[in-house]
Amino acid sequence: MDQSSGEGGTAVREGPLAVLARPLAVAGGLVVLAVAAMITVSVFMRWLINWSVPGDIELVQIGTALAVFAFLPLCQSRHGNIMVDTFTLRLPRRVQDALDALWDLAYAGIALVIAWRLGVGAWDTIRSNTVSMMLGLPTGWAIAAGAAMVGFLALVAVATAVRMLRSGR
To answer: Is the pLDDT higher at 10 or at 157?
Structure first.
């Protein structure tokens, strides 16, 4: 398990799923860079010759959604989500860890519901051959990828809860 710097420079242990979460987050970063480059080209060309990248809005929507889903598992594996611990600061560390694990499990449950519904939506859009309006891109596969990434997020959240209960941070 790696040591990564969390908030305030404190060491936060990553679980073994971070081995998969890290390249997924890098891929999400590459998608963001590609979207940013495409936006830059589109805006510049619109200014220069009154032409833009066809379907640029669709590509931004799909790319941004996929990138966000790609970042969430690594963020969870490092406990990088915002936590408000105003009322629990004076509790013993073990109790704080148990409460954090409880919230990780709640997060996993919510992620599972989202993954399930995205999976249903993906199945429906693939089955009905739903495509984007401008470029005619099949949207179901992007939704399916999002469902898979949110499912992975749920798995990471369960793993962080177990890690928290076993050994703390």
So the answer is: 157
